[in-house]
Task: structure prediction
Amino acid sequence: MTERAIALTPAEARAASPALLRKYDRVYVGSSFCQNLLPEAEDLRRLRAAGARAVTLVTPLLTGAGLERAAALVRAALRGERRLEVSVNDLGLLELLRRRYAGRVVPLLGRPVSRDFARMDPAFLRGFFRHYGIKLLETDEENIGGILPAAGLRLAFHYPYCCLAFTRLCPQPGSARDACRRPCGPETALLGPAGEKLTLRGNAYFIGNKPPRLAAVRRLVYTPPAGPASEIRP
Result:
């Protein structure tokens, strides 16, 4: 059976209704692209109290200060959770989790970093996943079946947005500073150089995608259009 999840920013998660949360098997909270969207430990507890069946902490590529904050967040979250699932895009954080919390933290290999790993040698991938105890490789590439080597890995597929690029420059504050506390603006429709439709969400650029029909896909993760959580529909 394929697990169904919804991905929310911390602001969206705080405003999400119990009715929305109960429609999904799992709630992702955080961001794969911007460390200023790391949630607080209280956000995870609030989601559980509001009816979320399971919660995944999402973390991006991190600066030194961001890594310290993410480590403190995991430590605080584990005070209220026996086990914690964490989507990881920073290899420094992945090693930290293995050393400090093996057995208590279940890592996923997040979308940005998985683009490179999905193209690596199958034997290396299997060994890497065993070493770090990685549960799922996360992806948003529709043609992942033709890209990923026959490594026997299980996938979490994110839709309806496929990330093309992200940057340290943000249209809101001008740069993604560690101290940024501005709310993310609404998503913006753009045209690419070949006339393709692009979407700017925060500091990342996306095109549309659809989940592939692959047996390896064990989880579907839906990202709703950016906007007030009260307007989110499953």
